[in-house]
Amino acid sequence: MAFPQAALTLIGDTSKPHRLTLRPRRSSDADALFLTMADPEMMRWWSRAPFEYVEDLREYFTNDDQSSWRSWAIVRSGEELAVGFVAAGQKREGVSEIGYLLAREAQGRGYAREAVTILIAQLFAEGQRRIFADTDPDNQSSIALLTALGFTLEGRLRAEWQTHIGVRDSLIYGLLAEEWSSRTAG
User: What is the set of domains in the chain, with CATH numbers?
Assistant: First the structure.
């Protein structure tokens, strides 16, 4: 299923200005995000090693599998530079996987929660019935975010990923459309 790749903003509460916009990620975002994606600590929980060269990151951003994954840069309202990104990949009809990354200097301000909320609302508005995230068991920040957004731990896949830090287990967190709807109603 081909998805439109438009800019996204938070649906719903219009009483306060939006702090973030999600716009389609582009290769030039590599310049803004390279320091983050080259940092071994920031990339610790990814299934790939940190990037060594900005050119490799540009190519990675350009050659994403656009048939099943969409990616948006997280930008502060009124700005152009990316401070992170969110991504969604349709795994089967009605089911999408999400991923996200936020630059260290943008952390601690609620941006990840706001950006992932925008993404979840968009995916459910498009008719997805289930969204899931795959995270490392030691990635406490990601686990806290998913839990705060209403995701449920569905299972542990043992020795799932061969990564730059070794073979790692994976936790699968899921959220159903009706769960999201009941959380956001009222």
Answer: 20-184 (3.40.630.30)
